[in-house]
Automatic annotation (TrEMBL), chain A:
Sequence intervals crossing the membrane: none
InterPro entries reported in the protein's UniProt record: 2Fe-2S-bd, 2Fe-2S-bd_dom_sf, 2Fe-2S_ferredoxin-like_sf, 2Fe-2S_ferredoxin-type, 2Fe2S_fd_BS, Beta-grasp_dom_sf, Diverse_Oxidoreductases
Natural source organism: Bradyrhizobium betae
Domain 2Fe-2S ferredoxin-type: residue ranges: 16-92
The keyword Metal-binding is assigned to this record: yes
Any one Gene Ontology molecular-function term assigned to this protein's record: oxidoreductase activity
Record keywords: 2Fe-2S, Iron, Iron-sulfur, Metal-binding, Oxidoreductase
Pfam families per record: Fer2 (PF00111), Fer2_2 (PF01799)
Record has Metal-binding as a keyword: yes
Official protein name in the record: (2Fe-2S)-binding protein
Amino acid sequence: MSGFDETLLDDADETVRVRFIVNGRKVACEVAPRETLVDCLRNTLELTGTHAGCEMGACGACLVQLDGRAVHSCLMFAVQADGAAINTIEGLTESGVIADLQAEFHRRNALQCGFCTPGMLVNAHELLLQVAQPSREEIRDALSGNYCRCTGYEAIVDAIDAVAKARSEGGGAT
Amino acid sequence: MDIEETAVKARAFSYFRAATIDQALDAHARAGDDARFIAGGQSLVPALSLRLQAPRLLIDITHIDEMRGIRREGGYLRIGALTRHCEMLSEPLIAEFAPLLHAAAPFVAHRAIRNRGTFGGSVALADPASEFPAMTLALDAEIEIAGATGTRRVKADDFFLDLFETALQPGELITAIYIPLFKADQRFAFDELARRRGDYALVGCGMLATFAGERIDDIRISFFSVSNTPTRVRGAEATLIGSSLDAERIAAAQAALEGDLAPPDSDEVSPAMRLHLARVLLGRVLGRLGEGA
């Protein structure tokens, strides 16, 4: 049986090499096992659009797409993501897939300080991929794990609702 | 001040990604049991970050194929331990053969947590406020456990022992959970009371009943957030078996909760308040069961 090498236990904080695809580009970096994915993205890869808020999965500011699904990047270690495809807010912005959401957030002032916005957008993006025409209640439910400490929720729900309607009518929201 | 003293960061550990169950068990044993298995990590990572736990080795089990997949096996649905909460919502086999899990899933944390959290991990942690451990009790599930001496199956009724304490021994791993297949003469219902959606419930309840016409032949009712463990309310169950679900029977079941539950004192909710909420919720969920929900 292959696998576990006991010398690993002597090197608890020694960095290991991980490889993943971030925003469509192959990336390799050296991380300590205890380094969270959000710290790796922000500090090593300098993708600071992903925000580290509560660092315990409550606030939603650190959401990224991991293999196509929204996850908290504070609730996993970078080593766990070895081999995965990750999209951060920078990648989603570049590709244009959330351009209508961003424009509608802008138009409706659905952000004040902006700290929660990347997480809100990653979450809203996944919601609209899964549910074409969510009710306002469904939008609120989907956002229940994203805190906006400026309490701008009403405009955020309005913006997502407007984009859902515009998309289902075949046009853009802008 | 040194950032190490202030930041919310885990203590240093080594990381090993296991490819098989045997590799995972072997690594745990060779780390002198100062190791933790990590699956979805949605409860473990915060515990590590807050240094409530500080193992020297983290064994990643999420790439073990034997622990994946959902399939029928005899009279059971075998749900691999690595099944994610979001799959409870999307998998047709769950909706057909374990609909109580499908009904409970939207109440489990938030969407992004459900995208990573696993069924086996939730049952292994046995958080008394979690939905799925309590539902394994209502469903009369069996938990498949792998360890150094082989594999065994433990009934959910015998699995949850005390606060975060289960029949799992150090170094053992939940590999799958077996749910008796849902039958045509059965009904289920679920609900919970929480201050906000996605918060831990103040009290929650799920049930599975077998009917003969309108008469209840058998019923299992399980509560969560009421005690140190998920809790079956056997007194309330007994008042319902052999009867149809009328207002009088529901009131009797509600009254029986006083003998079934002894909620602990907490800063948030007094025992009397929690018992009251449990009664209200039981009446509501039984009403829905009567309507065939």
